[in-house]
Amino acid sequence: MFFKEVEENTELLELRKDSLSAERLLPSVPTQKTFDYILVGHKGHDDLDPKSQRQSDFIQQLKKKNISVTTIIHDDKVFYGLRAPKETFEDYQYLLKVSDSCNWRGDVRGEIPQATRIRIVYFILHHTRLDSGEDLNDLLKDNVFETLFCLHERKKQKELRKKWARWSAAFTPQPVMDIQSYFGEKVALYYLWLGWYTTLLAPAAALGVVVFLYGLAFFNSSPLINEVCQSNITMCPRCDNRCKAWELSDTCSYAKVSLLFDNEGTVAFAMFMAIWATLFLELWKRHRARHVSKWNVYDWCEEEEELIMDIVNDKNCTPRQFTHSYYRSTLVLILVTVMLMVIIGIAHALVVFRVVAAPLISECKWEFLEAYANPVAVMLGAVLHYVTIQIMTRVNRWVSLKLCSIEKLNTTAAKERSFTVKMFTFQFFTLFSSLFYVAFFLGRINGHPGNYVRLAGFRLEECHPSGCLTDLFIQMAVIMLLKQTLNNIFEFTVPWLKNCVRKNAAKKLERKCGYCYRKACRDEQGRIEPCDICKVRDWLRNYHLGNTDSFSLFNEFLEMVIQFSFTTIFVAAFPLAPLLALFNNILEIRLDAIKMVDLERRMVPRKTNDIGVWTKVLEAIGVLAVIANGLVIGVTSDFIPRLVYRYHYGPCATGASHTDCMEGYIDDTLATANVTHKHQEGFNVTSCRYRDYRSEDYSLTSQFWLVLAMRFGFVILFEHVVVICKFVAAWFVPNTPLKVKNERLRDKLDRLKKELSEIKRAKSTDV
User: CB 3.0-4.6 Å disulfide test: which of 125, 374, 423, 663 passes with 400?
Assistant: First the structure.
């Protein structure tokens, strides 16, 4: 048995050596540089098979455009290797040269870059139609063709793996120029933006940690915590039926957590993050300008690029006219509104879950769950919210695509912008509807003893006497941790598992190919003639990789922009959000790089000079962050009530200097309820307390109106001050560096002089 295993292993080793040596000897084996695209279809039973006939018709249409096609049949699949003629790219270069954007020099450097070839051939493939009017997308939907993909360039792929797609490069600068030449400007700008965002998260994360440590420093000495932990206050039941009155001191731990994230440092941090968001965008515009100027796409125009592609594909093409339909726009607006109402309705369902879960948990026999019923309900609600997000993400994508098809936009760029805005809007409402409820409605519309507001027969939730901000913190922490952690696991694990399957298939093919080299591929003189297996080996290596499409990069952008929203909009409730985002992004860059270089098919290189509509989305988030953080501090936080108490109702306001200014604050925020009321039957106490500013007859006190006025006054002042700071910061930082502007002026001048000299030279030649 032992000798048999040794013999088998020796034979496999010889086969591999023969395979490698034969690969070096092959003079004309097609490599990834030979073909621009690979189209894969199923092998038909005969020529009369309808799918086989449609395959042949499509290939004939490509041949009419002078695209060379190499057909290889392997097992039950047909592989078509496609290569466009040199004239196609010469036309593209010339049209770029005479266009208004005039970025042709970026492509004229001797040989046509493979990224440019792939982009043009991709456009031709998707704009080639059969006589029946069907295009490639229709054929893919009908399973006439299985898939199509471009090939990785082994040499450049290895270089990117060495410089970028490995964990040891986590703290080294990204090779943006190499990424741009291989994956195109669109992918390069995404990683450039993500790297810039991650870099600027470092000061925000550091300050967030300082704010957290500030709360931790006064953790044990705070009179508010001592007042909760050492109190003998009896609180009113949280529900009507079996809930009992509870002691405020039972929630000592909850009060400590509340003060960690609800302190004076939170206000300064929220203002900093609002200004940080503006500076981040303004500095990003400068950073982007430097790189797109190097890539010579600063003046690039999407619309003009698409027109050039149309001419390259079909010399007799006609421009697609701009159209606008008020009927379609109205229909889309109505459907978007309906979809948003559905999403908000789901958020209401989550609220109902929390309202129902809290009293049910409080009835539990376990003492721990009974004491922390509300926090446990909030945590369960956050987990359920995450599950809802995963389901609604797929629904939102389907609805957004349908709405874009109703609009019938004329260009691919316009469709992408429309889809991005709709998808982000739906995702934003899906993720933040529940958070907005927790931030601005929880504990403020629940009523009072004798007149509680009810939902589905249950009383609405109440805030803890130490504040409402902890509920928002718990909700955000659970969603951010779950979303970022699980998303990274699934995004990387699925392509990794597929890669394992690919490697097994590649090993089997390599063994077969090695046998082929040794015996079947040699002629009478012993020379090697490559067989179809040898040619298709590299195609199969790419075929078994994870699929990529136009959504691949969009999904990455959407994930990061949603994270940016979490980091800025409710940062007042969760100062550690920038730190979590920083750690996540350091991992995200490497995970995405490894996935894109090694585990997935090569993404189609796309030309662009900006991150597109995402810039407008980020600007809108920055404005919303100012409003939301002002409301969180002014309305959700207890910052304003504490200030009012300190300077108007507390011991220091009355001249008692021997005590802490905040002593007695918790007791001041609690109203007293008479337990003999009909809704309070079964109590074994004579009175209980609840959080509100009300007198014994449940009427609002003057302190309530003073606090309310101060809350809204602070919100208005905060927003105006921060907005002014944002405008000053945006004005102070120019979008384009002076060096880039001057270089562009010199380049334009040189180009114009060169054009003039060429014209004069041509005239002198004619004479």
Answer: 423
Residue 23, pLDDT > 60, answer no
Compute CA 453 distance to the chain's CA centroid, rounded to the nearest angstrom. 38
**Where residue 2 falls among pLDDT bands split at 50, 70, 90?**
very low
Phi and psi, residue 695, nearest 5°: -85, -175
Closest C-alpha to 643, from 586, 541, 714:
714
Contact of 170 with 159, CB cutoff 8 Å: no
Burial of 587 (0-12, 13-18, 19+ CB in 10 A): middle
E strands in 440-577: 447-448, 451-452, 454-455, 458-459
* Encoded tokens for 119: 């982009």
- DSSP one-letter code for 43: P
289 pLDDT more than 80: yes
516, pLDDT greater than 70: no
CB distance 194 to 588 below 8 Å: yes
Q: Are β-strands 37-42 and 77-83 bridged in parallel, bridged antiparallel, or unpaired? A: antiparallel
Element (H, E) at 81: strand 77-83
The answer to whether the beta carbons of residues 542 and 148 sit under 8 Å apart is no
User: How many whole angstroms separate alpha carbon 462 and alpha carbon 239?
Assistant: 10
Listed range (29-33, 258-262, 524-528, 648-652) with the worst mean pLDDT: 29-33
Determine the Cα–Cα distance for residues 463 and 355; give it in Å rounded to an integer.
12
Rounded CA separation 211/215 (Å): 6
Q: Which two tokens stand for residue 606?
A: 């796309």
Measured CA to CA in angstroms, residue 132 lies from 316, 700, 715 at distances of: 19, 74, 62
Cα–Cα distance measured from residue 140 to residue 136, given in angstroms and rounded to the nearest whole number: 6
If one counts every other C-beta atom within 10 angstroms of the C-beta of residue 547, the result is: 12
For the chain, what's the residue count?
A: 767
> Rounded CA gap, 701 and 687, in Å?
19
Please say if the pLDDT value at position 30 is more than 60: no
Residues 6+ apart with CB under 8 A from 117: 36, 84, 89
Would you say the C-alpha torsion 257, 262, 266, 271 has a positive or negative sign? positive
Question: What's the gap between Cα 77 and its chain centre?
Answer: 36
Residues whose CB is less than 8 angstroms from the CB of residue 108 and which lie 6 or more positions away in sequence, other chains included: 93
Could you give the C-alpha distances from 634 to 140, 226, 361, in angstroms and in order? 55, 24, 31
Q: How far apart are CA 633 and CA 638, in angstroms?
A: 8
CA 523, CA 519: separation in Å to the nearest integer? 9
Structure-block tokens of residue 571: 């940062």
In this structure, are residues 227 and 665 in contact, taking their beta carbons and an 8 Å threshold?
yes
Give percent helix, percent strand, percent coil of the chain, each to the nearest 5.
65, 5, 25
Q: Do the Cβ atoms of 577 and 480 come closer than 8 Å?
A: yes
- Tell me the C-alpha distance between 380 and 364, whole Å: 15
Q: Which carries the bigger pLDDT value, residue 254 or residue 670?
A: 670
User: In the predicted model, is pLDDT for residue 108 greater than 60?
Assistant: no
Minimum mean pLDDT range among 216-220, 397-401, 641-645: 216-220
Asked whether the CA dihedral 193, 198, 201, 202 is positive or negative, the reply is negative
Q: Left, alpha or beta for 569 (phi > 0: left; psi -120 to 50: alpha)?
A: alpha
Can you say whether the dihedral through the CA atoms of 372, 373, 379, 380 is positive or negative? Answer: positive
| CB atoms inside a 10 Å sphere around CB 527 | 10
Residue with tokens 């109106």: 705
Phi–psi pair at 355, nearest 5 degrees: -65, -40
